[in-house]
Amino acid sequence: MAYKKPFYVKMMTDAFQQWSDLERRAGVTLFKNTGYLVFGKDTEEYIISNLESLRLNGIPHQTFSGLEANQRYPRQLKIPSTHKCIYEEMGGILYASRSLLAFQQEFVKLGGTILDNHQVTEIIPGDRVTVVTNRGSFKANNVVIAAGPWAPALCSSIGVDLPFKVKRVESIYWKVDNADAYSSDIFPTTFGIAHGDTFYSIPVDEYPNMVKISSAGGIWTDANNRDTESGPVTVPAVADFISSTFRGVACKPSIIDYCMYTASPDYDPVIDRHPKHKNIVIAAGFTGHGFKLSPVVGKLVAELISKDTPSHDLHPFRVSRFTTPQSSL
Q1: Pick from 272, 87, 56: which is nearest to 188 by CA?
Q2: Partners of 129 in the beta sheet?
Q3: pLDDT reading at 7 higher than 70
Q4: How far apart are CA 263 and CA 285, in angstroms?
Q5: Closest C-alpha among 149, 146, 157, 159 to residue 121
Q6: Percent of the chain with pLDDT over 90
Q7: Residue pair 201/211 in contact by the 8 Å Cβ criterion
Q8: Which of 99, 151, 167, 229 could cysteine-pair with 147, CB 3.0–4.6 Å?
Q9: What sign for the dihedral angle of Cα 40, 46, 52, 53?
């Protein structure tokens, strides 16, 4: 778990159970437990705060030096011997496409209807909210805006200006000399800090003979014009990180994919009702760490719609952090 604020720890505990329940209902594997290794200088703020949060929240973990990490993974790692390493056994890989399909199938089983390729052009508040798309209009007692990079524009159109920005990030895959050494059966996901940047890696799993190693960096963009931007910008930094950290990984990328996330100023999302129109709920601005929480977010949104008491503290996610008048949960 990359974020260890107390409310995220509680939400992730809930999410693990819900992911497990969804796996059981769908009959497919959605999560692979590989372990999660974080490393960097022991003076790095992230290392210090991460370790403190793990201890305060009673999350099982191990700490050891970079030298010991290299001894544990002699075919994969060559990180600086003096680095501090934190290992969590519960980390792993969440299969996004498979998980999305499982969500959709369960939604349909429960009576839902999925309308693909409907571009929302307008939302008209009222006792019944009207959603206008390029293929027709729909009315509903309640509407949830969970539109990712397109959420800021939709929210602005109904009077809520959120200070969110959209970042285009690069998912980069690199060939390895020994796929067995980097198999997800024996090598964990990692998160490293170097030269003021952060990098994550996922072992060989998605593509044969390739690991995914990427930076959290990217470029600010517009959701509708992502693919008109310039080419990749993080490859040199990631290649340098690979050269100093991993063994047997090519320093020339094989595949580069692009994706987007919506960044909030405090790295926390909005999960709240519209300040004026209480039958409109907003769930946006997850800054790249929303998907793993998605079962919990869905539950919270449903509780807001049904006016049930939220099962988690929603005060950190209020609209009123950024706008007035005050939002009421």
Answers
A1: 87
A2: 140
A3: yes
A4: 5
A5: 157
A6: 87
A7: yes
A8: 151
A9: negative
The C-alpha atoms of residue 277 and residue 297 are separated, in whole angstroms, by 20
- Per-residue buried b or exposed e for 135-169, using 16+ beta carbons within 10 Å of the residue's own CB: eeeeeeebbbbbbbbbbbbbbeebebebebbbbbb
Q: Which of 321, 296, 288 is nearest to 165 (CA)?
A: 288
* pLDDT score for 324: 53
Half-sphere exposure of 26 toward its Cβ, with a 13 Å CA cutoff? 21
Q: Which of 90, 141, 81, 145 is nearest to 307 (CA)?
A: 141
Q: Which helix (H) or strand (E) holds 245?
A: helix 235-245
> In this structure, what token pair is assigned to residue 101?
């399909």
Query: Residues 28-43: pLDDT tens digits?
Result: 999 999 999 999 999 9
Average pLDDT, the chain: 93
> What dihedral angle (degrees, nearest 10) is formed by the CA atoms of 302, 307, 312, 316?
100
Task: Report how far residue 146's alpha carbon sits from residue 150's, in angstroms, rounded to the nearest whole number.
Answer: 9
The structural domains of the chain, ordered by start, are 36-89+166-263 (3.30.9.10), 98-164+266-321 (3.50.50.60)
Amino acid occupying residue 67: L
Question: What is the distance in angstroms between the CA of the first residue and the CA of the last residue of the chain?
Answer: 27
The span from the CA of 251 to the CA of 174, in Å, is: 7
DSSP assignment of 150-203 equals GHHHHHHHTT-----EEEEEEEEEEEBS-TTTTBTTTS-EEEEEETTEEEEEE-
**What 8-state DSSP symbol labels residue 212?**
E
Q: Which amino acid is at 293?
A: L
What pLDDT does residue 195 have?
87
